[in-house]
Design brief:
- The complex is a heterodimer.
- Chain A has six helices and four strands.
- Chain A is mostly helical.
- Chain B is mainly beta.
- The two termini of chain B are 31 Å apart.
- The chains are: A mainly alpha, B mainly beta.
- At the A-B interface, helix 1, strand 1, helix 2, helix 5 and strand 4 of A face strand 6, strand 7, helix 4, helix 5 and strand 15 of B.
């Protein structure tokens, strides 16, 4: 089936689902662009949603030392919470070490997650520049980018994560 | 041999026919595993008859004698609310999980949300981005579903090389069953006007983790609801007050609590909790994303791990079964480590994607036994043995453990977790 045919079929299925659904009272209030922008914090793998700003690993080392090291250890190893660095080459072994570098498939996920939820006692307290910087630091510690590489909305989605090719979907789209 | 045909064994090591208890003919012979009490037995008059009872209250509490029935819970180092609490399955009967004992899995604590200030934003690939509040959602057509939620990490304790000697709830208590009432998400998406390229949604909570998961549009339009009520009352704070996404049969973390935002997207967002966590690592290094439905599963809750039998005699084996694919078709029980099996009776109602209660009489002769249950759902999917399930999985596959549970009964009446 061609892509247009599949989309047409899908739309037909959606229409059928709508037809049997109950009607709502239309009580939603239309959101303004400003309201949507204030809440829309997710970053897609292609970089959609990344804000202005930038940072390097050198900048990120300072952020990490101040905000992250207590839970995640020096250079991302040895803390009481998730290990963030290393483990390369272990994923297919009997003792896989899943870190940002060895396991995570998308660099954009690091930015998204750090910005929305870290540090765990003060989520959303870092500036976008600080999030870019600490993301760069973690990628640099894992040997994925160079020390001087600038991470920003253009460069971060271009970062190829070492384990990205080992993920496959268990779910099949219609 | 007993003259009563219903008392004849239907499988090895004392399993009796599932209709035995329904006839009620052997009630006098039943041995219950309840605690003995020495007070108020005949001929003494119970003290409760000699003084007026307590007054009423606006919101009820259980008997203080039941205060030992608690969820076990734990949190990551340096946090108080990043972890899970587990339903004490071995203390419960029927299929409804009381709200106060429903399992919880939080990624950074339980937010304190005033419903008057809470909003749900639906935006992205839609014609009209819309904002709803609790009052407006309460005017929408509501639907009720008696269905389970199970964390995909449930039963992961049995991945350990040696079986942990703990209770059924400690191993399997990340599953609970409630009547969820809410607004079909399809209605809200219809009002927003989903564009043709909108194939997924991102659901996001207003907790300190900003918990977020991607959900295919087909599921969002099929049976997803924005749940407002749990067992007739508004959601518990630990289960998403004032509103949560509810996705019947799918791994629990996707039913995003404290729901504040739904963005219609072309593809999945690839959030932390659908890539680095809740993905399934196989021994060859490949990982599966989006293993959404929870598999067919069952566990005997009585007798179960850490219980003590009360001496040889007649018992009722009782447990729960469920499947993310639909109704439970049948449950079989073995008392001889899987050598022979007998079909259990299923309590009504048997509902799709709901816990289902099963029962079977068992005459324990005082000898060693291994009790097992295996469920088959209406699609024909059968619960595997632990060995079969782990074959090909490797040691790093953390989620979706759904193998047959084995409880060993010793001659002294101790019940414990074993691997068969």
């Amino acid at each position: 089936m061609s892509t247009p045919e599949r989309i047409a079929l899908l739309c037909g299925l959606f229409a059928a689902a709508m037809a049997i659904a109950q009607e709502g009272p239309n009580l939603g209030i239309e959101a303004t662009a400003e309201q949507v922008a204030g809440w829309s914090i997710n970053i897609q793998p292609d970089g959609t949603g990344l804000p202005p700003g930038s940072g390097t690993a050198a900048d990120g080392a300072a952020v990490y030392a101040a905000q992250c090291v207590a839970c995640h250890g020096q250079e991302g190893v040895g803390g009481p919470n998730d290990r963030l660095v290393g483990g390369h080459g272990t994923i297919a072994s009997d003792s896989p070490v899943r870190t940002v570098g060895s396991y995570w498939p998308y660099a954009t996920t690091v930015f998204d997650y750090v910005r929305r939820s870290m540090p765990i006692l003060r989520p959303q307290s870092l500036s976008d520049d600080e999030v870019y910087a600490v993301t760069a630091y973690l990628l640099e510690l894992n040997g994925i980018i160079a020390e001087g590489d600038v991470m920003n909305a253009a460069t971060l989605p271009q970062v190829e994560m070492p384990n990205a090719g080992n993920f496959e979907w268990a779910y099949t789209e219609d | 041999m007993n003259d009563d045909p219903a008392l004849e064994a239907v499988a090895g090591n004392g399993l009796l026919h599932r209709r035995l208890f329904l006839r009620g003919s052997v009630a006098a012979g039943l041995t219950f595993m309840t605690a003995k009490t020495a007070t108020a037995a005949p001929p003494d008059v119970p003290a409760s008859m000699l003084v007026p009872g307590a007054g009423m209250s606006g919101y009820g509490l259980r008997s203080p004698h039941e205060d030992h029935v608690q969820r076990g819970f734990g949190s990551l180092p340096g946090t108080v609310g990043t972890g899970a609490s587990r339903t004490p399955l071995e203390h419960l009967e029927g299929i409804i999980t009381p709200g106060a004992l429903h399992f919880e899995r939080h990624h950074n604590g339980i937010p304190d949300i005033d419903p008057a200030g809470h909003r749900l934003l639906i935006h992205g690939l839609v014609e009209r981005p819309l904002i709803f509040d609790l009052d407006s959602l309460s005017r929408y057509p509501l639907v009720s579903k008696l269905q389970f939620i199970e964390c995909s990490g449930n039963s992961g304790a049995n991945n350990a090389a040696e079986p942990p000697n703990v209770s059924a709830g400690t191993i399997h208590g990340l599953v609970s069953n409630s009547q969820w009432t809410g607004v079909p998400l399809s209605i809200l998406l219809d009002e927003a006007g989903v564009q043709s390229e909108g194939r997924w949604i991102l659901a996001e909570g207003s907790d300190a983790a900003g918990m977020s998961r991607s959900v295919p549009m087909t599921k969002a339009l099929d049976d997803a609801i924005v749940a407002i009520y749990q067992n007739g009352e508004h959601l518990r704070p630990g289960n998403g007050y004032p509103m949560r996404l509810f996705l019947p049969g799918w791994e629990g973390n996707m039913s995003v609590k404290w729901l504040r935002r739904i963005e219609v997207t072309a593809g999945p967002t690839m959030t932390k909790d659908e890539t680095s966590k809740y993905s399934d690592l196989m021994p060859d290094g490949r990982s599966l994303l989006f293993t959404f439905p929870m598999e067919v599963k069952s566990v005997i809750t009585s007798p179960s791990g850490t219980n003590a039998m009360q001496g040889p005699g007649l018992y009722q084996i009782s447990g729960i079964a469920w499947s993310g694919a639909g109704r439970v078709g049948r449950v079989e029980i073995s008392a001889d480590d899987g050598e022979s099996w007998a079909e259990a009776a299923l309590d009504d109602p048997v509902l799709p994607m709901s816990l289902t209660r099963f029962r079977l009489p068992w005459r324990w002769d005082g000898g060693p036994a291994v009790l097992q249950s295996r469920a088959v759902d209406e699609t024909g999917a059968a619960q595997p043995t632990r060995t079969a399930m782990l074959a090909g999985r490797g040691s790093a596959y953390r989620y979706h453990y759904h193998a047959i549970q084995s409880w060993a009964v010793t001659e002294s009446g101790e019940v414990s977790n074993v691997y068969s």
